[in-house]
Amino acid sequence: MNKNERQLFERLRNDDEAAFKVLFNDFYSKLYYFVLEFIPLKDIAEDIVQDTLVTLWNKRSELKDDSNLTSYLFTVAKNNALKRLRDKKYRQKMFSNVMDVSELNLNVAALSTIDTSVCAFTDIEQIIQETLFTLPPQCRRVFELSRFQEMKNREIAEELNISVKTVEGHISKSIKTFKVALKDYLPLVAYLFVL
């Protein structure tokens, strides 16, 4: 943990709701996209993330000084997701909406094997930054507009005065490059690769 994270962590342990809100905002989308990889129903994924963050608040005084907050949160999210994947009521909802039995069982198996101790987002952020700067300038710009500013392909094409097909090509090339660089972290950063 860096100094700022350590201070937030200490404030959280001392019942500081403002610190919790900062952590909530920092972790919500990371946890959401992690859970969504295995449970492709947005409402259930949102519930799991909410439950995970409520657990953080409820157990804040039990956290140890040397706790890895990121690892803790992803472990709680993973366990909450596994509970839902194994719950009969939720399995039926997922079958009727998006998954067949074999796909659901694969998701349970995949989620069970994830080592949440590798959830070091500072490492991931560093790899993303380094990989980003290996991309050709226009390819990098297209990726940044698409993934970080959430612009649509048509909007990017208009802004950069290129065709939509060129935008799609740049995004595809970027995604391939990132998948190689982040192969050990794919479940955690899958939201970058959603086309």
Automatic annotation (TrEMBL):
InterPro entries: RNA_pol_sigma-70-like, RNA_pol_sigma-70_dom, RNA_pol_sigma70_bacteroid, RNA_pol_sigma70_r2, RNA_pol_sigma70_r4_t2, RNA_pol_sigma_r2, RNA_pol_sigma_r3/r4-like, WH-like_DNA-bd_sf. The keyword Transcription regulation applies. One of its GO terms (biological process) is DNA-templated transcription initiation. Residues 23-89 form the RNA polymerase sigma-70 region domain. GO terms for molecular function: DNA binding; sigma factor activity. SUPFAM superfamilies: Sigma2 domain of RNA polymerase sigma factors, Sigma3 and sigma4 domains of RNA polymerase sigma factors. Residues 126-176 form the RNA polymerase sigma factor 70 region 4 type domain. Keywords: Sigma factor, Transcription, Transcription regulation. Belongs to the sigma-70 factor family. ECF subfamily. This is RNA polymerase sigma-70 factor.
